[in-house]
Write a structure and sequence with these properties.
By secondary structure, the protein is mainly α. The protein is about 80% helix and about 0% strand.
Length: about 40
C-alpha cells in the first residue's frame, strides 16, 4: 500500500473513531428523563 493511501485510511478511521467516542460520551453523560415527564 502506498504512503498517501495509508495516511488517508488512517485519517478516515481516526475521524470516525473520534466522532463515535465523542457521541458515546455525550449520550452517556446526558441526564436521563424522569418517568413523570414521559407520561403526561
Amino acid at each position: 500500500m502506498s504512503t498517501p493511501a495509508l495516511l488517508t485510511m488512517l485519517l478516515a478511521q481516526g475521524t470516525v473513531t473520534f466522532f463515535t467516542i465523542y457521541f458515546l460520551i455525550k449520550v452517556l453523560r446526558s441526564p436521563t428523563p424522569s418517568e413523570e415527564t414521559e407520561n403526561p
